[in-house]
């Protein structure tokens, strides 16, 4: 079941102002996509993003983020991918907001599907000027093509990193009146992104890599949603005042998979 977006999103500045917020967005102001997302909606998004047409309505942005969070929440910590249907699987490294690179990949290699699956191995945002479009297109493809897209969390799927490398500034520039609401939804997406992908039970794809201390059983069993940021680890449950507040063993496992340099942990 698809849930409605609960927040009220302002259209002033972001969408021209003076528009009834209860009315459906007009296609003249951006692609008029429908939920649940289908191939035609992905085509509309690609066309709009490629030609730099009117920006996607903030309500649509919010709904993509909410639907993606619900889908990601149902996934395990480590994606399980297979080539039993396809003869190959395409693994894409850091996109860092380079929309043109993503569109070239889709143009040359085809859109995702169970017969043409992709793994996007983290760092979707920051540095590039189209980080939001890249993130929204990847999430939309995951929703529209079940079994065709696997997303791994990277070290830049983190709002603290985004504050330094540009993504938060980009969201504020593109959605001035809705930025904080959208960033909260983006943070929830980050929390639920899987930490890696295993292909055919043989190949482990993860953003940061592995070490001789990697414990896959621990990675598979931890509560990934509590890691809103890897730079500010969560407090260990039940910790007494003045006692150790960080589960350093678990935090180290998550940091290794995400290419985070860890302060001295003993």
Automatic annotation (TrEMBL):
InterPro entries per record: Calcineurin-like_PHP, Metallo-depent_PP-like, PPP_phosphatase, Ser/Thr-sp_prot-phosphatase
EC class name: hydrolase
Region listing for Disordered, in residue ranges: 9-32
MF terms (GO), sorted A to Z: metal ion binding; protein serine/threonine phosphatase activity
UniProt entry tagged with the keyword Hydrolase: yes
Record's keyword terms, sorted: Hydrolase, Manganese, Metal-binding
Keyword Metal-binding belongs to the record: yes
Coiled-coil residue spans: none
Record EC number: 3.1.3.16
Pfam assignment, any one: Metallophos
Catalytic activity: O-phospho-L-threonyl-[protein] + H2O = L-threonyl-[protein] + phosphate
Domain Serine/threonine specific protein phosphatases span(s) in chain numbering: 152-157
Acidic residues bias locations: 9-18
Co-factor(s): Mn(2+)
Family: Belongs to the PPP phosphatase family.
Protein name: Serine/threonine-protein phosphatase
Organism name: Pieris macdunnoughi
């Amino acid at each position: 079941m698809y849930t409605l977006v609960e927040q009220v999103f302002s259209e002033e500045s972001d969408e021209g102002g003076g528009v009834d917020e209860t009315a459906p967005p007009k296609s003249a102001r951006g692609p008029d996509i429908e939920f649940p997302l289908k191939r035609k909606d992905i085509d509309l998004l690609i066309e709009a993003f490629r030609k730099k047409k009117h920006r996607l309505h903030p309500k649509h942005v919010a709904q993509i983020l909410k639907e993606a969070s619900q889908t990601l929440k149902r996934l395990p910590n480590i994606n399980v991918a297979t080539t039993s249907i396809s003869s190959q699987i395409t693994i894409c490294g850091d996109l860092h907001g380079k929309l043109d690179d993503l569109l070239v990949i889709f143009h040359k290699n085809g859109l995702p599907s169970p017969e043409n699956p992709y793994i996007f191995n983290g760092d979707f945002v920051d540095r590039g000027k189209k980080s939001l479009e890249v993130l929204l297109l990847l999430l939309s493809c995951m929703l529209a093509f079940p079994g065709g897209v696997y997303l791994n969390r990277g070290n830049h799927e983190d709002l603290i990193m985004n504050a330094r490398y540009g993504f938060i500034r980009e969201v504020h520039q593109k959605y001035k009146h809705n930025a904080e609401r959208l960033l909260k939804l983006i943070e929830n997406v980050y929390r639920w992104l899987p930490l890696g992908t295993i292909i055919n039970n043989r190949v482990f794809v993860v953003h940061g890599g592995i070490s001789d201390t990697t414990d896959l059983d621990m990675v598979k069993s931890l509560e990934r949603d509590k890691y809103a940021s890897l730079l500010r680890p969560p407090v260990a449950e039940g910790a007494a005042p003045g006692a150790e507040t960080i589960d350093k063993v678990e935090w180290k496992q998550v940091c290794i998979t995400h290419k985070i340099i860890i302060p001295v942990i003993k």
